[in-house]
Amino acid sequence: MLFSPTSLAECLQEWETLEKDYQQVQETHRLYKQKLEEVSKLQDSCAASISRQRKKLKDLSASLKECGQAVNPDDLKAIEEIRESMKERPSIFFEMEAFLPKKNGLYLSLVLGSVNVTLLNKHAKFAYKDEYEKFKLCLTILLLLSSFSCRFLVTYRAVDALFNFLLVWYYCTLTIRESILINNGSRIKGWWVAHHYIFTFLSGVMLTWPEGKLYQMFRNQFLTYYLYQSFVQFLQYYYQSGCLYRLRALGERHNMDLTVEGFQSWMWRGLTFLLPFLFFGHFWQLYNGVTLFRMSQLPECKEWQVLMCGATFLALFMGNFSTTLAVVYQKYKHNRGKAKSL
After folding, report:
1. d(Cα 269, Cα 241) in Å, to the nearest integer?
2. Single pTM value for the model
3. Tens of pLDDT along 157-166?
């Protein structure tokens, strides 16, 4: 309960206490700014040292390659030991840089400018990652319900537009959040990042597709596809989050690793029941693309969105299918090599 002075003497006493506290606040704030400047200098110094180390390691690697052509066995052994130690450095530097401010990539620079998005402690990083995962789960459920409503309950074009706008906003937001997470040490990269950019574009094209015969021809197929896609994403989230939790507890996965769309090599721990669902979804994308290309051949086809959506669905199919196959083949080879070594 706050003290409330009732007399002049009490008011004067309270003022003296506030004055002392005010002086302490000023001193604490001065010390805080001083530490911030020190931290900033340390960050610059650490970033410069890492950059210098990388350059010297690159030069040393080239020199060792030349020296290794004509040396005795003892020297060759020493060179191999150095090379083994050098292999560990890039991952160590990656971990260090996750706690250092870095320049935003092109996409974040266009969206946010030069705002520093690096989170400087583990708690803040993990809290942001956790919030990202919850955001994905909530929006997946919302999109599942929305696509079901549009497919079976509501048939108005305006409602379809709202659904497509939600898709554009969702995938746009995902790309921004993922870029921030990558800046903070998350290792999501490659096709699974590009997939979200492409789906943002696809959703935008669907949003601009005007009402008409061709739109109605494809509408139910698209909504049914996305209903299935949302269901698979829901399965993926729970399966992948369980796998990640176990692997992080064993120290086999990085704390900033995410659940992503698609199949990852670490998901072989346990059941691989997601693969049939994923492959079915990939071939549904191919079917959507073929359907749209056939529609573009119809005499009444005047909308550019038909051909553009068809090309985008084919790009999604080729990227998803080839990446999933590559991960499966890579893991199969790894398991086979491990079995032979035993």
Report:
1. 12
2. 0.80
3. 999 999 999 9
* pLDDT(173) > 90: yes
Alpha-carbon gap, residue 213 to 215, rounded angstroms: 6
- The dihedral of CA 242, 244, 245, 247: what is its sign? positive
Residue 209 is classified by DSSP as: P
Please give the torsion angle defined by the CA atoms of residues 289, 290, 295 and 298, in that order, rounded to the nearest 10 degrees. Answer: 140
Residue 177, token pair as written in the block:
């959040």
d(C-alpha 259, C-alpha 328), whole Å: 17
Contact 182, 188 (CB under 8 A): yes
Per-residue DSSP letter, 263: -
Cβ atoms within 10 Å of 191's Cβ, excluding its own: 19
User: pLDDT tens digits, residue range 85-104?
Assistant: 888 888 888 888 888 888 88
CB 37 within 8 A of CB 28: no
- What is the rounded radius of gyration, in angstroms, for the C-alpha atoms of the chain? 28
φ, ψ for residue 209 (rounded to 5)?
-70, 120
Question: Rounded to whole angstroms, how far apart are CA atoms 327 and 323?
Answer: 6
